[in-house]
Write a structure and sequence with these properties.
The protein has six helices and four strands. The chain is of the alpha+beta class. It is globular, with a radius of gyration of 14 Å.
């Protein structure tokens, strides 16, 4: 499992703690230090609804003034490729890189990672 995000994000910290508390192996990738490729963004967008993946509540969204642009799905995807900080965090890649989910939800994590 790979956890993508930034260390200072509370939701990322919860995901890491969930993995540690349940003895799940993970690799943390700080996309502030290692920006995601366009191919990675495309993969995540193929697995996760763009409106879930695109963080329209964060500081970066507000400081860039993106609300006024009324972005469609293609516009949101283009911005995600330009600036990883617009991604909702964390993004979890799992099942040998074939699946992905976004945000922290203990119920979903339990179902996906502990009941298999």
């Amino acid at each position: 499992m790979k956890i993508y995000g930034i260390k200072t994000c509370g939701s990322v910290q919860k995901a890491i703690k969930f993995c540690e508390n349940n003895n799940l192996e993970y690799l943390f990738i700080d996309f502030r230090k290692e920006p995601l490729s366009e191919d990675q963004i495309d993969f995540f967008a193929s697995k996760i609804d763009i409106n879930t993946l695109f963080n329209n509540k964060g500081t970066k969204y507000k400081t860039l003034g993106l609300k006024e642009l009324n972005l469609d799905n293609e516009g949101k995807l283009a911005w995600l490729k330009k600036d990883n900080m617009l991604l909702k965090r964390p993004i979890i890649e799992y099942q040998k890189g074939t699946q992905a989910l976004c945000a922290f939800d203990e119920i979903i994590y339990t179902k996906e990672f502990l009941t298999q």
